[in-house]
Amino acid sequence: MEFRQVGNSAVRLSRVALGGHEYLPSGHSRGFNEDFAKAITPGHSFPGFGGDRRKAVLAAAYDHGVNVFDVTLDAEKEALGRNLAEMPPPYDVYVQTRPEAMNYSYDPGNRKMTDLALLRAEVQRILKILRRDRLEILNLGPMRTAIEGDPDFVAKVAANVRALQREGLILFAAADTFSGQAIYEALVASGAFATLNINFNIADDEPARTIFPLAHKKGVHVTVREAFIKGALFGFGRGLGLDDAIVARVVDGHYWCIPKGVPQDQVDIIVDLMKFMWKPDQQALTWAAFIGPVVKAATIVSAPKNIQDDVKEFWRPEYDQIGTKWKVSPPLGVKELSYAMDRWDREIGADQVKK
Question: What span, in angstroms and rounded, lies between the C-alpha atoms of 55 and 79?
Fold first, then answer.
């Protein structure tokens, strides 16, 4: 497992976090899709959470070094607290959750989270459910209407976060919203939020151009969610005739191209360079990129020791099954790839170079 440091603290969070959702046979999340009003009501807990299947998932998370656990509704909170007591983790873990009926549009204007007494009482209630003395990450998700309705909203929430930290009730606060970049910017600028949570997937990749650079600049830890759009992505795949079990290696390549009209003496030099790069000792260096050489004689044992050590540490067994168990697929069809490369040249690459 890879870990990421949170700001200047000594805390290192696993790159993968385990969410608390459990699911109906239809594939929809429990609670929210059973009775939404009850799901966001403080104190209501649906039965059946945290059973054997959930504990098996928790055990797998331990095996892989996951140390971040994110839960939402009270049924998930209760289940996690109970499961952690039944199955004590072999290392320190960090729990993230939200105050009920305060985030998003559940509380119009998000005024409750500006009231320190209310927010403190909610955190204390949560800690009892989770059976913990401190909440590691309090997830706060205001909407745009909160800031538009109160110019001092962010300052009030930031002050409340710092107060809860001083009291030892929380370790960090996470910025969250569904109201766009400006709200994230305002929350991060307050300096009170060490982490932020945001949707990021093939249908919603805007954060890569906006929020991620901002978070990096400010030293804020980012957690992305909805990678598979709550499982809908697999449904899309099945609708296209793709099975969940199909795994393919999408190949990329680098090609030598000699433009027409290059003088023969230069062509001779280029060909000599190509022959040199084709030698086994040179091809062995490509193991560093985990792509493997195209010359069979360039085995891993012929690579420099530092490259051998990296491959030994990070190589996956699946790589040995490429072309046998896992099919090899080009990134795009010939027509689509040609169009993509032509567009790159026109809009970004060669055609944009000023001579």
Answer: 10
Burial class (CB in 10 A: 0-12, 13-18, 19+), 324: exposed
Amino acid present at 197: N
Task: State both tokens at 247.
Answer: 């795994």
pTM for the model: 0.68
Q: Is the pLDDT of residue 355 over 60?
A: no
User: Residues 233, 202: contact at Cβ < 8 Å?
Assistant: yes
How far apart, in whole angstroms, are the C-alpha atoms of residue 38 and residue 45?
8
Lowest mean pLDDT among 33-47, 97-111, 303-317: 303-317
| 3 state SS of 243 | coil
347: its two tokens: 């809009």
CA dihedral (347, 351, 354, 355) in degrees, to 10, reads: 180
Mean pLDDT of 282-292: 79
Domains and CATH numbers, the chain: 3-239 (3.20.20.100), 248-352 (no CATH)
Q: Cβ-count burial of 244 within 10 angstroms (0-12 exposed, 13-18 middle, 19+ buried)?
A: exposed
pLDDT classification of 307: cutoffs 50, 70, 90: confident
